[in-house]
């Protein structure tokens, strides 16, 4: 890959997209109000003053001190105040009543939606004593627990009951509480605990034998219904890495890959195979260094781990985000969310891109300014920012965005309680701001979209669709260079990235990733333009150099490898059986291609059978057959070849199915 001059207009549009996702956000107005100050007599301020400042930290300092822009910058930042959706006890009470009404009508799914909204909007214990005597949250959880019991979900029902108890629900003399606990344990198959809870109910109900008999009948009915509608929740785990031991160079990587190149190398640092790799080998399982959920999924996915929400747990203070569990909530509220909570809606309203949120998250999750500065050295060494090539106007916009985010951090007391309300940063704050500004530049080239597979019908593959739900930054994955014909397929489990090889890669060869433009879906001119303007390099991969056609024009018959050892030549596929004995124009030897043709036919058959296994939803069997077919093809032929490329795409779908996959 070679750096080249970009298409200035398209590059500007690409750069802007990585900074601002909404034109209507107020940041755009903020920028233009500041930019008006360096037009006219100060028209050269950007190039003759700003651009000549040598470091990000000093450029950030400049916008607070230079009289050309500082008054507008500081005047605007002074108005930054918390903007967030607060709790509402009355709204929660209304939703709870609606849930109970729907429950009575046996409309369980609608009742669950109302109950979840009641939980999310309820203030904590004692916050609003005029409604429910301050127990709105406990009663919302109590109601949702009953919905889960009716839906035969004992595990989640029990979690809500336990949480309701922690939120103030009286349980010591509450017979009904232990009746529900007994039902939850019965649904979960924990019969001994169910019996203990039933005995407590019996005691607290005044040894009412009739009530105990009715409870036990209900428990048995629930067990029977659970058996009749048995559904197994599969707990997904990260796959085991190929090879032995831990990779000392790349965290979370297999020992079968290693780093090559250097910062001075035109290709930078990149990943090569340390040993021969076959298709389907796991070469990376890496948790995100930082990841942010797209705002439009705040109501459907956990903001911490990206799991789809079923029984959302709320932040104690805001209604803007939700968590899948108490563990995710507590971890988030102890670190990044306590600084983002009251300013998240303001930041979204600014129109900033999700990459800006990831940059902020890299700071807030560190917890302290000192830790941010320490991590900043590592981040600059790992992720390229290309500051020296960035247009001064684009850099200035990112500096202005940094000033806005830094102001949010000041107001959220990330730096502790300040002695002044003025937005002008201290030296410590400037150092943190410099890390933010560096991240706002490097994320353009290093961030990865996190996706899930959405299954909308009966068949898990025919109705599957990739949906991007967030963005993450990964130190190990950022080391992979791009090719338009990738050697790996990317999937996710939560926010952790998994890379499987998608084709054979010999030891010493580059292990390429794909940044988006794939030769199967985009013609060469479109790919080249996108890569030049979005990632600032010209791709000279094999698919580009040979100008491979898109999927619909791919050949059904590939070129075959010369069978002479170390020759490496590719021979035309013989159109007739009589043409299978040919002379190689490289090694000058007579080559019989009969065995190669038969192996290719066997490869096609394996891939076809693999596709049939996918049609039958036998995922593991399909993976094994596809791996064998792709391996066999690599031994006798060279790409592009339509059936094999279809098999590689099918393999990608199978691995995605084992990651973030949800039915809708």
From TrEMBL:
GO biological-process terms attached to the record: compound eye photoreceptor development; methylation
UniProt xrefs under InterPro entries: SET-MYND_domain_protein (IPR052097), SET_dom_sf (IPR046341), SMYD4_SET (IPR044421), TPR-like_helical_dom_sf (IPR011990)
Gene Ontology MF term list: histone deacetylase binding; methyltransferase activity
Keyword rRNA-binding carried by entry: no
Gene Ontology CC entries for this record: cytoplasm; nucleus
Keyword terms of this UniProt record: Methyltransferase, S-adenosyl-L-methionine, Transferase
Keyword S-adenosyl-L-methionine (UniProt): yes
Source superkingdom: Eukaryota
Protein name according to UniProt: SET domain-containing protein
Source organism: Anopheles stephensi
Phylogenetic placement of the source organism: Eukaryota, Metazoa, Ecdysozoa, Arthropoda, Hexapoda
């Amino acid at each position: 890959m070679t750096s080249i001059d970009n298409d200035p207009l398209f590059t500007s549009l690409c750069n802007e997209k990585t900074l601002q996702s909404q034109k209507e956000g107020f940041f755009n107005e903020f920028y233009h109000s500041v930019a008006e100050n360096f037009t006219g007599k100060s028209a050269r301020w950007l190039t003759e003053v700003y651009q000549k400042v040598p470091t990000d930290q000093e450029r950030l300092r400049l916008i607070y001190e230079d009289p050309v822009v500082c008054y507008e910058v500081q005047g605007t930042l002074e108005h930054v105040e918390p903007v967030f959706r607060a709790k509402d006890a009355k709204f929660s009470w209304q939703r709870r009543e609606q849930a109970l009404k729907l429950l009575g009508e046996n409309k369980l799914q609608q009742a669950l939606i109302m109950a979840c909204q009641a939980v999310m909007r309820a203030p904590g214990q004692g916050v609003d004593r005029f409604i429910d005597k301050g127990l709105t949250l406990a009663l919302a959880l109590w109601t949702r627990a009953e919905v889960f019991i009716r839906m035969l979900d004992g595990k989640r029902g029990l979690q809500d009951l336990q949480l309701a108890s922690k939120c103030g629900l009286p349980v010591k003399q509450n017979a009904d509480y232990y009746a529900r606990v007994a039902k939850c344990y019965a649904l979960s198959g924990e019969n001994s605990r169910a019996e203990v809870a039933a005995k407590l109910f019996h005691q607290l109900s005044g040894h009412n034998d009739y009530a105990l008999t009715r409870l036990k009948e209900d428990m048995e009915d629930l067990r029977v219904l659970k058996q009749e509608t048995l559904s197994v929740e599969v707990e997904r785990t990260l796959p085991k890495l190929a090879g032995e031991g831990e990779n000392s160079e790349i965290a979370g990587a297999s020992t079968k890959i290693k780093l090559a190149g250097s910062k001075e190398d035109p290709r930078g640092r990149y990943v090569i195979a340390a040993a021969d790799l076959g298709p389907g080998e796991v070469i990376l399982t890496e948790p995100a260094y930082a990841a942010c959920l797209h705002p439009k999924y705040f109501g459907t996915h956990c903001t911490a781990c990206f799991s789809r929400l079923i029984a959302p747990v709320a932040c104690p203070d805001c209604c803007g985000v939700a968590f899948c569990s108490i563990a995710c909530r507590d971890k988030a509220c102890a670190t990044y969310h306590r600084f983002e909570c009251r300013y998240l809606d303001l930041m979204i309203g600014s129109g900033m891109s999700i990459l800006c949120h990831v940059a902020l998250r890299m700071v807030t999750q560190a917890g302290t300014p000192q830790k941010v500065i320490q991590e900043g050295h590592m981040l600059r060494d790992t992720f390229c920012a290309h500051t020296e090539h960035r247009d001064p106007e684009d850099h200035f916009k990112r500096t202005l965005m940094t000033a806005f985010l830094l102001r949010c951090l000041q107001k959220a007391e990330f730096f502790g309680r300040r002695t002044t309300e003025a937005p002008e940063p201290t030296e410590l704050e400037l150092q943190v701001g410099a890390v933010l500004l560096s991240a706002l530049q490097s994320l353009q080239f290093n961030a990865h979209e996190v996706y899930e597979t959405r299954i909308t019908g009966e068949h898990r593959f025919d109705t599957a669709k990739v949906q991007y739900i967030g963005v993450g930054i990964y130190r190990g994955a950022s080391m992979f260079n791009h090719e338009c014909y990738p050697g790996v397929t990317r999937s996710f489990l939560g926010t952790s990235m998994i890379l499987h090889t998608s084709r054979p890669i010999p030891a010493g060869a580059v292990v390429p990733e794909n940044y988006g433009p794939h030769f199967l879906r985009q013609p060469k001119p479109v790919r080249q333009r996108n890569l030049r303007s979005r990632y600032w390099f010209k791709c000279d991969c094999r698919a580009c150099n040979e100008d491979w056609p898109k999927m619909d024009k791919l050949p059904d018959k590939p070129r075959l490898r010369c069978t002479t050892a170390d020759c490496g030549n590719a021979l035309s596929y013989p159109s007739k059986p009589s043409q299978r004995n040919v002379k190689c124009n490289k090694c000058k030897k007579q080559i019989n291609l009969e065995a190669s043709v038969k192996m290719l036919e066997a490869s096609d058959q394996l891939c076809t059978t693999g596709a049939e296994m996918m049609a039958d939803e036998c995922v593991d069997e399909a993976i094994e057959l596809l791996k064998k077919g792709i391996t066999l093809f690599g031994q006798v032929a060279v790409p592009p070849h339509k059936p094999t490329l279809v098999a590689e795409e099918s393999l990608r779908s199978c691995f995605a199915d084992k990651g973030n996959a949800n039915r809708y």
